[in-house]
Design goal:
Order of helices and strands: HHEEEEHEEEEHEEHEEEEEEE
CATH architecture of the largest domain: Beta Barrel
CATH superfamily of the largest domain: Sortase
Number of domains: 2
Oligomer: single chain
Largest sheet: 8 strands, mixed, barrel
Strand order of the largest sheet: 5-6-7-8-12-15-10-9
CATH topology of the largest domain: Sortase, Chain: A
CATH class of the largest domain: Mainly Beta
Strand content: 15-25%
Number of strands: 17
Distance between the termini: 56 Å
Low-confidence stretches: 20-44, 72-136
Radius of gyration: 22 Å
Helix content: 10-25%
Mean pLDDT: 75
Number of helices: 5
Structural class: alpha+beta
Length: about 375
């Protein structure tokens, strides 16, 4: 027997098997295998083979982006040079500090400036928090929402539940959580029980306030994953599309025309938001995550998202309005054959009351919609 030839054949078989496994995955690490794939009980604590491959790909991408896994705290951190014992710092505590969406800002108590980084979570890099930004007068809400009992019942399971979100025409009907640690990444891979979950939860930026319509801030930014509905055809009302996966059908004109409202409840008030912009953006360039802006920056944001929007909504939006922003991932743009990891699908609405909360507006195609900066070619339908 020729041992050299046998060894070469064995290595070739191993390489072919590895390539087959690699080619069985699609965007976001999703496997082409069926959801009922037999579970592999020996790897990743009993995850199915499909989920194990997804998890491995996610881990590899995180490490490639400079993150590291802390075994003691079971949490991903951005910078290998940061000590896991350092404290979280709310980067909005100083007007001179810059915050980033989807960030963990952690510095030593003696540090003179915050160290921040942006990771791919479903949002954008935020801008400087200016001392001249518009502020909301603080007052204690005196009303109670119809969903207050539901919110409180979920708080018994997890005190981080702060609100409830429902989106017209979708199965998005979930509690809204907020990170207890001042980080927009805390619930990125955690369920309501704070244990690992690929789907995660619906969670709000840590800067969001949960009062009534008179006390909430200018912008309420909410994140959610989309693992199943990101490519080509946008499926509507498909049961397996959970969290924010069913946001994607809003890129279809007929769906957008029929479904125009976002319903958001805190313990104090049931609020309705009229959708006015639906778009894909480069998360590194669009600053849609902060809760407060200067009047100038807020005006620039409104103008930019309306220019990016696939559709023109016949409604006026001004810097006096309160906005809600729903952000998720999408697989639409490719550059030189490579999927862009910083692309986001975003739906934005403005707070409406009275007759405006029950009537729809005219929605037409935006024939000169702006293309996101540096994203390459759009491949989705």
């Amino acid at each position: 027997m020729n041992l050299k030839k046998t060894s070469r054949r064995f290595l070739a078989l191993l390489l072919a098997a590895a390539m087959a496994v690699s080619s069985a995955t699609t965007a976001f690490g999703l496997s082409r295998w069926d959801d009922d794939e037999d579970e592999d009980e020996d790897d990743y604590s009993g995850l199915s083979l499909r989920d194990r491959i997804e998890r491995q790909k996610e881990d590899e991408e995180r490490r490639a982006n400079g993150e590291y896994w802390d075994e003691d705290e079971e949490y991903w951190y951005w910078d290998e040079d940061l000590d896991p014992d350092e404290e979280y710092v709310n980067s909005q505590s100083s007007s001179s500090q810059k915050t980033t969406q989807a960030e963990s800002v952690r510095v030593t108590p003696s540090a003179s400036a915050s160290k921040a980084a942006t990771i791919a979570v479903g949002g954008s890099k935020t801008g400087t928090t200016a001392s001249t930004q518009k502020t909301t007068t603080k007052k204690t809400p005196t009303t109670v929402s119809t969903l207050a009992p539901t919110i409180k019942s979920w708080q018994a399971k997890n005190a981080d539940v702060k609100a409830w979100l429902k989106v017209s025409g979708t199965n998005i009907n979930y509690p809204v959580l907020q990170s207890p640690q001042g980080s927009n990444t805390y619930y990125e891979a955690k369920g309501i029980d704070k244990k690992y979950s690929k789907d995660g939860v619906i969670w709000a930026s840590y800067t969001v306030d949960f009062g009534d319509s008179s006390t909430i801030k200018q912008n309420t930014c909410i994140f959610g994953h989309n693992w199943t509905n990101s490519w080509r055809y946008a499926y509507a009302n498909r049961a397996k599309d959970v969290m924010f996966a069913q946001l994607v059908p809003f890129k279809k004109l007929d769906f957008a025309q029929k479904n125009q409202k976002i319903y958001y409840s805190t313990e104090y008030e049931d609020m309705t938001f009229q959708i006015f912009a639906v778009f894909i953006c480069n998360a590194d360039d669009l600053d849609y995550v902060p809760s407060t802006y200067t009047t100038k920056k807020f005006s620039e944001l409104i103008n930019e998202v309306r220019s990016l929007s696939f559709f023109d909504y016949d409604t006026t939006v001004t810097t006096d309005d309160k906005l809600i922003t729903l952000s998720t991932c999408i697989d639409a743009y490719y550059k030189n054959g490579v999927r862009q990891t910083n692309q986001r699908f975003v739906v934005m609405g403005k707070l409406v009351k009275g007759k405006d909360a029950t009537k729809d507006v005219t929605v037409t195609k935006n024939t000169d919609a702006k293309t996101p900066t540096g994203m390459g070619t759009r491949k989705d339908a």
